[in-house]
């Protein structure tokens, strides 16, 4: 994992398997089924990297031949996918964090204004006492992520960590400015946005590719 100079909030995975999965996601010939599987596997890697800095506490494990003084996570974890595309990351994160609570935020990006339009919110009451992983594979203008983080803060979230796949500099700058304490874990920092607000080179419309729409 590297931190990108000029972007202290961004952590890009350097794991070779992250590149393997990102290659599948970027390839325009990948089927929806293979896209879903690759996103699930990549989400596992990103979860392991994002949780590496989580605080831990001591605990004693009653092993078969004696006690072991060990450590475990200090706080529970709540994951919150941004509908729809964030749903494609949920199973991969739960593979690694099976006890996590799951909330949902429904946002879509207005095609003309590129502004996020909220349509659903269901957040568990564990949010204030949890580390929160916000899941959205695409960080383009950053409008959706900023709106999602604002809603999580309103629900009492303290530690919020964004798990994404492809990040555009424009979106990262927007999140860094509005929420300077947020860390973003992703597989790639791409070059920018096209005239429709899509990430270049990106991987297309993540929601459409996941669900075949
Ligand atoms: C996509 C993506 C993000 C958002 C990113 O969602 O999943 O939520 O766009 O763009 P932004 O950084 O410019 O806000 P979309 O609006 O396409 O909805 P969908 O996931 O339901 O397809
Ligand atoms: N949403 C997507 O799904 N892809 C992009 O490139 C930008 C926003």
Verbal overview:
- With 213 residues, this protein is an alpha/beta fold.
- Strands 1, 2, 5, 6, 7, 8, 9, 11 and 13 form a 9-stranded mixed β-sheet that branches.
- The chain has 6 helices and 16 strands.
- Strand 3 and strand 4 form a beta hairpin.
- The longest helix has 20 residues.
- The structure holds 1-O-pyrophosphono-5-O-phosphono-alpha-D-ribofuranose (PRP) and uracil (URA).
- The site of 1-O-pyrophosphono-5-O-phosphono-alpha-D-ribofuranose has 23 residues, from strand 5, strand 7, strand 10, helix 4 and helix 6.
Q: Topology of this protein?
A:
Blueprint: E1 2-4, E2 7-12, H1 16-26, H2 32-51, E3 56-63, E4 66-73, E5 76-83, H3 87-96, E6 101-102, E7 104-109, E8 116-122, E9 130-135, E10 138-139, H4 143-154, E11 160-163, E12 166-167, H5 169-178, E13 183-186, E14 188-189, E15 192-193, E16 199-200, H6 206-211
Parallel strand pairs: 2-13, 5-6, 5-7, 5-9, 9-11, 10-12, 11-13, 12-14
Antiparallel strand pairs: 1-2, 3-4, 7-8, 15-16
Uracil is lined by residues 85, 138, 140, 198-199, 202, 205-207.
Would you summarize the structure shown here?
This protein is an alpha/beta fold and 213 residues long. It is 32% helix and 34% strand. The chain is globular.
Entry keywords:
single chain; nine-stranded mixed sheet; 213 residues; binds 1-O-pyrophosphono-5-O-phosphono-alpha-D-ribofuranose; 34% strand; 6 helices; 16 strands
Helix amount: 25-40%
Distance between the termini: 33 Å
Low-confidence stretches: none
Provide mean pLDDT, rounded.
96
Which cofactor or ligand species appear? 1-O-pyrophosphono-5-O-phosphono-alpha-D-ribofuranose, uracil
Principal-axis shape? globular
The tally of beta strands, per DSSP, is: 16
Structural class by secondary-structure content: alpha/beta
Please provide the ordered H/E string of secondary-structure elements: EEHHEEEHEEEEEHEEHEEEEH
Main sheet record: 9 strands, mixed
Portion of residues in beta strands equals 25-35%
Q: How many helical elements?
A: 6
């Amino acid at each position: 994992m590297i931190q990108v100079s000029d972007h202290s909030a961004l952590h890009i995975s350097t794991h070779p398997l992250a590149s393997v999965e990102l290659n599948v996601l970027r390839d325009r010939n990948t089927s929806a089924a293979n896209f879903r599987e690759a996103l699930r596997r990549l989400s596992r890697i990103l979860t392991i990297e994002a949780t590496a800095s989580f605080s831990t506490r001591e605990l004693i494990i009653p092993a078969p031949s004696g006690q072991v003084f060990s450590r475990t996570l200090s706080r529970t974890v709540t994951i919150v996918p941004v509908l729809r595309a964030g749903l494609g990351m949920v199973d991969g994160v739960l593979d690694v964090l099976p006890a996590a609570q799951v909330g949902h935020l429904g946002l879509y990006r207005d095609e003309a204004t590129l502004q996020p339009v909220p349509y659903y919110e269901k957040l568990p009451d564990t949010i204030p006492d949890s580390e929160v992983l916000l899941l959205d594979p695409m960080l383009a203008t950053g409008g959706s992520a900023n709106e999602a983080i604002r809603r999580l803060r309103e629900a009492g979230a303290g530690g919020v960590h964004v798990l994404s796949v492809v990040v555009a500099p424009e979106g990262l700058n927007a999140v860094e400015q509005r929420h300077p304490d947020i860390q973003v874990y992703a597989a790639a920092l791409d070059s920018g946005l096209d005239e429709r607000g899509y990430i270049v080179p990106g991987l297309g419309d993540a929601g459409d590719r996941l669900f075949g729409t």
